[in-house]
Amino acid sequence: MFTRLSTPSLTRFPGSLTRSPGAARGASTFIAALALLALLGTSLASCSSTREREDDGRPKLTEKEKLGLYFENAMRYINMGENARAEDQAFRALEIEPKNERFLLIYGQSKLLQGTSADIQAAIEIFESIPAKDDYRVQMFWGAAVERAGVLYDEAASGVRDGSRPTDAPDRAQRAAELESEARRQWREAKEHFLLSREIYPGEPQSLGGLVRTTALLGEMDESIAFSRELIDSIRSSQRLVMIQLEDDGLSAEDETRLLDNRRSNREFEVKTRLHIAFLLEELGRYNEAVTEFDEILILQPDLPEAHSLKAQLLFDLGEFVKARTSIERFIELRARTASFEDPDIRKAYDFVERCDRAIATSNQG
To answer: What CA–CA distance (Å, rounded) separates 243 from 260?
Structure first.
């Protein structure tokens, strides 16, 4: 009989964790579930006259049929963001087949998405227990769980260091250093899981995203930039496929809406990835490259105010005062569409315009 995992002590993973919106939601898995239900419906219709019935007269489901329904329900709940209900469906299935790897994966995924410290520890234990270590999804979700455990340790370290978190340790600085060291150990382990997932299934965006994050957390900025570039290639491959499908004259309205949503999501994903690259380049002092990255961002999303503002600051640091003024004026124009001229960001932007004017005047005098 499958039993629920015991709740671990919260002292093992201190702090709390914001729920992640990201999760594996493969369309092929969902389609497979629907196909299973179609077969199930046929089976019920063909044998309903002879099979055992419930008290209300409905035919009793076989264990195989129950597993099909639990799978479909669990995937639907995950897609809806109702992760506790997905967990319950996976738990019911595991009571029937305790070693069913598909439901162990769903159970661990739903725990991961709920995101408390206890859930994260439970998810790690679940992924450790799954025999199929060569399944890219196991490694990917396992890596995500360990990564989040590292975040919890890092948050605890910050709290201990600044005094906002109680500790019995006589030396706060030493305890904070210990927690930071554990956070880094967790992130190194998470990176290894993501690397293995990428090796099993190259180009998987979630595995690449995990590598982008963990390398940045570890301070491996050049690696994070390289993985970000690889992620962008993956996003663009997906985008090309979407664009080809949109050219189909026989496309239904429903499919067209879905594909347009995918196109928008891909574009937003690429913008966020390029912003990450730009911030890392700025931190590395590679301002010209960061400006080029913002140019790419603004091709994708020309009306993104923050991109114009950040680009303006970089141009100013590069001594390109006229271009910086043009960029910050564009920011003001876009920001004013949704905010008043008393908005603090707009006021700061006008101050920046004056700085540009003074710098332009000084450079002209020279």
So the answer is: 9
